[in-house]
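The data are quoted verbatim for completeness:
=====
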Amino acid sequence: MRRSSILLLAVLVLALLGRPGEPARAQAPAGSLPESALVDALSRGDTAEGLKLAIRMVEERQVTAGDGSPQLMPALRWRGYFKALGGDVAGAAADFTQSFALGEKFLGANAHRLTDAALAAILTYLETDRDLMLSLLADRPDDQKLALAALGMSRAEKGRLMELMRANIQRTRLNAKGPYKLQESRQLVADMAEARAEYERILFAAAQPFDAATIAQLQALEQRITAGQQAMNDLFGFMAFLADVNEVRYKPELLADAGRPPIGSWTIDYATFRRYRFGKPGAKPAAVAPAWEYLGFLSRSDGRVAVAALGPAAEIDPFVLRLLNAAANPLSDYLPLARQGYNHLVAPLLARSREVAFADPGAAQLDRSIINRFVRIFPDGNLNLVAFAALNDGTSFLVDQYDIGYAASALQLGMFAPMALKPGFDVDVYADPDFRLSAPAGGAQESNLSLLNRRPIRPLPGTLAEASAIGSVIPRASIVSGAQATRRLLLEKPAPGVLHVATHGIFFDDTEPAAGGVGGEMPGSAPALWLAPMVETGLVLAGSPDDSMGGIVTALDVLGLDLSPTQLVVLSACETARGAVRPGDSVYGLRYAFHAAGAETVVASLWKVPDDATKSLMARYYANLLGGNRRLGAMTEAMRQTKKTLAHPAFWAAFTVSGAGGLLRGSKDGALPEIRMRR
């Protein structure tokens, strides 16, 4: 092997099997085996010697740090990696699983003490264990035990960072409002709020692309926010009860079972991962960087999982973008792409599912006898941009056969069952804001705000008609419009049971993935601005004289809301399901922010939606809801009704329903004939 290849391989392994200085890993004890010895064995292709050294490293760390220490994680990865190279798949999987479990244990015990930046770095570190497990599975898709373990790891990471960031915000507020109302805590909360507001303002007002001075400003504000979080944690570190407030607790070993669908239904998970090629036992590993690939899982009601390798991201990602553009354009010839999408993304999983034997033949017959199925999609990477309802199997669209819903994070896996009913709820509708009060004038700079001004924000009288249509089925809904429909009101008014926002959505797509990848780096990976994706997607409402954001509600704003009383959020605006795509994780934008803030169900759009078609679709959606349909089925039925007169998916397929799919709580039968509204 040439020296250049050896150096490349060493860099890759050090970077991907245990980065020095990561927060999840302490420094190696003095005198322990250096990782350079393992790199050297790997570069020579000496798998036996490498495994022997890795076993020694694990034993040393067990003695010096203990069996439960995160210091074991890189050693376990090395041992698992060499086991995989030697053909010991079960042993490798056990080591990767143990490393992941140690990271989860560390995160669970310390999340309430960590800043957002530290959490982002730890989650990035944990992704390597997931990628190694998915790489093992891609070579052995029939291994059910391996499939369930890898599926649990994949689910554990999706949407996790945003939920932990939200928990940090909630915990900070509790610190300031709790039994210890110290002046210092109130000042810290105020300073962090000021820093976030300044961050948003600069991101929208600065010239594009950012110059070095602007990046330095933004990074300084991120450091100020991080320092404030650390100071708050130090100040209240003695308050053990705070660790339980809004904490995100994952049990990776239970996640696969938690997502088991009801009889007659499926759950489809997609995973984006860096594919490691372990090769034949004893062969020298190639010095090639792991490439991004897609893997699909179809979970059945009997607990069995079908796995299919879907191919490299370099091929799938450009196709997904073509599919999205065709779906959004009512003049496009969409059907051929819709069939290709089905053949690429769904058909392989159905074919594999037919090959996986049912544990009970009776269960198989029962599964096939149920007609009204639903499919829950847990997307990943660029597949978050696919309108699965509009895929076509050659005979019909999937929406004609199934109720299709989406999961935004692992916490929502159990939320598709009918929910316990409680009496009454209130409805707030924001529509037709006065945009003359929005987006203060910018200069000649190509900033986000000046871009909005150069393309004047057109009024949306159709949204008022949409609100009126909703009011016709919910006569006492609270409709806020014009100069009253302000950003300040949305952020400060107590959360309603149902929130409907009909306005312009904005999505500054400066991270559009190119062929060969799935987007930017994970938040927290220097030198990326890890808060920026949360500011580059939002809703436009009316501004006010003291509103430096000109009426724009960003996803970062939404994270600061308490939407725990909110059953349903409908974002009737353009591209509200879009955002910064992160491989192996969620889309960082409005949809996931509303979920993280506590909303049970979020309806959001994938593309710019026509006014008239949206008005009709939404009126049908609410009529279906109030007629006794569940949140998921009501939208699917509205799509079917709209499709009868407007056949192209551009008019009916843009909206996704994620989270809880059950009945709105309001009456004993779900029909809600007497709705108690807040005036």
